[in-house]
Design a protein that fits this description.
Elements lengths: L6 H29 L7 E5 L7 H11 L9 H9 L4 E9 L3 E8 L2 E5 L4 E3 L4 E2 L9 E3 L5 H15 L6 E6 L5 E5 L4 E5 L3 H16 L6 E5 L5 E6 L4 E6 L15
Parallel strand pairs: 1-3, 4-7, 7-8, 10-11
Antiparallel strand pairs: 2-3, 4-5, 5-6, 8-9, 9-10, 11-12, 12-13
Helix pairs in contact: 2-3, 4-5
Length: 256
Amino acid sequence: MRLWDNAGALKRINNGLYVLVVLSLLAAAVVWMMNSPYFPIKSVKIDGQLQRLDAAQLQQTAQRHIRGNIFKADLHAAREAFEALPWVAEVEIRRMWPDTVQIQVSERQPVARWEGGGLVDSEGRAFDAPTDEPFPVFSGATGARKIMVEEYDRFRAILEPTGLKIERLDYGQRAARTLTLDNGLVLRLGRLDAESRLRRFVQAWHEVLHSRADSVRYVDLRYKDGFAVRYRSGEETPAVPEQAASAAHPHGDAEP
């Protein structure tokens, strides 16, 4: 049987050609729209709760990377340019028909300075940005940044009743924590039960230590049921049990 005598085959060929023509027209329409002068970007909107980012710098970045036809604008390259700005944490860019590009910017929230240079944000990520703002100093292994941020927030909340601020958080070997407060007092929390040990200090601060704060050099809280105090003169008291106001020996040695 000849092909032109097969009605079913001719119908399938006809349908295939029809689909091919439609697809070709659609492709041509897409190419035309992407290169057409009739769909220019007329507005770029930048939103976000911005405190440290320079609005003028954001606008300049947008002007360099988001222009021309709304369909052809390279939003991926624009996103990379925004993410390269020091204070930008995240950015979302989308087209809004017919002529607008909307940019949603999330700003980094700095928590501390990293010893050796740079800042640490609220997600535990390191970054470099110019600022004269005072921040506590973090020191430790780079992989510990996130947990240091989380613990810093909890430590700060525990200390709030004392009015004391954390100036430095050291994460030593085997995750031993040491806090330096804004009055110069050093708290050795050790590796275990750091939060409960800090609560023990807060209690002792109100009961025993506040009146002697000027003469205290550091408080060693690495004991099971008390703490030891070293004075600036070099004198060291025995550890103080948790619920006592006078000095007494603790049970056991300090955590190594």
